[in-house]
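For the sake of clarity, the format in which proteins appear in this thesis is described at this point. Each number in the token line that follows is a code from a learned vocabulary of backbone shapes. One such record is shown here in full, so that the layout can be seen directly:
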Amino acid sequence: MDKVLGQKRAGAHLYPPIDPFDQRMLDVGDGHKIYVEQCGRRDGIPVVVLHGGPGGGCSPAMRRYFDPEIYRVILFDQRGCGRSRPHASVEANTTWHLVADIELIRETLGIDRWIVFGGSWGATLALIYAQAHNDRAAALALRGVFLMTQPELDWFYGGGAARFWPDLWEKFAGLIPKDEHGDLIAAYHRRLFSGDLPTEIRYARAWAGWENALAAMGSDGVTGESAGEYARAFARLENHYFQNAGFLTEDQQILNRLDRLADIPGVIVQGRYDMICPPESAHRLAQGWPKSRLMMIGRAGHALSEPGISAELVRTMDVMADKRELLGL
């Protein structure tokens, strides 16, 4: 009930629901086709929305953070998840494939430069994309920063968050024999890619359940069980990326390349009590990125649906719309 009420309070800050004016399946090669949609104003300020996970998929609620009379909103399901096909596939599915997909979407839609909006893994991907194509990113709007570093993975899968949620951690880690607890990502990987569908779904639900339970402050660790098909795609893709350190060449790659963001303005919206992506990463990012502004939201966790986070993201996008000329849009 608290989670439902929290979502309703968050919805009070959003623009009304809208339907897409364009939906398509885009062939990105390697046997993958990704779902892409556009909504809002056809000739509006372009903004691309990068969902979390990896493997989370986009949702109708994500359209509502932007004034539909001003913004041209582009959402897509990343490889292997949501409506993209093949479902739950990790073949030819790396960070660099996703960066190339974003560029293909931009070129296909005839967009020169756009705002990049992303949360959690979507923030990671937004930063990596902007560092690779800083001439195409007019501004970044980030939420729940994750920098794809080993200390962050150790926090969530190595026992850090478990100190606050020992009962939930016991459910997550307890499915794995104790002699494999030294690397739970690898232990879950073996089971998520076992080739036995019931086994994969069982461990996928446990993987997704651990994360979902800690996402929002209002849930207090209580969350429903994810649908098997969704959980399997989410867990397999997320685990695949984490098992491979995000396919980055160095552990601190994003922070080590902040000079590539020197001319790009950005806003970072971070929950003060984010248990999945602790605020330290957002703080470090802001310290090394002079054109960024960090907004620390009190009484908020990780989820996009946190009322304070939703309110600040809508305000951020309204302010960016007012500054479209300064952003070259």
About this structure: The chain has eleven helices and eight strands. The longest strand covers residues 32-40. Strands lie at 22-29, 32-40, 45-50, 71-76, 114-119, 137-143, 266-271, 292-297.
